[in-house]
Specification:
Blueprint: H1 2-33, H2 43-64, H3 80-89, E1 104-106, E2 109-112, H4 118-125, H5 127-150, H6 156-172, H7 179-183, H8 186-208
Helix pairs in contact: 4-5, 5-6
Amino acid sequence: DESNNLVNNTKYIMYGIVFVGLVLVLLEWSATIVGRNVDSIKFMDYISTYVGAEIKNLDIFINQKFFPINEEIWGQQTFYTVINFLIKHANLAVDPYNLDLPFRISNGYGLGNVATTFYPWIYDFGYQGVFWLTLIMSVTSEFIYQMTKRCHRFLAPLSRLFYGGTIVPCIIFAFFSNKFYESMDIIFITLSIIIWIGSNYMFSKENNK
């Protein structure tokens, strides 16, 4: 069993390496598809800039700012979509605003305005925000994952689709920006959890009968 697990783990690791390699090779080509002009940029320069810009932008931000940055709205960078939802639908007495995402240049290279998911967390809450928001993200993701495993067989495919199509991309793209807290619609997740619990209860009750 241990040898089989080792083989399976090695296989998944190799799949991951091949996948990352393909993504890097196709990265510059995909930029032309969306209309970016990369003809004047060397391939390795483009890859290194695109992959490393997030960390460099975060480094520049940390070295230039004192944080947390106290703004009018609590958590306005981290919970941007939630706050805008409340402005539109709950008559929250706050003027609409835009995210503070300045474009940066370092050593002649344009780094864009992406600075990993830590940027808004540090911006709003300082270093302690990194700890607490990471904890919330991990606990929430694990909770939803465990729910997908316990769902009735009728709901299992839908649960896995929700987890794989919503939660997993948010975690993966956290390297680029605050996808988890930007994409998590409170009402949608709450309704999903209620539907899962209610459906599982009803199906389990019917099976017991």
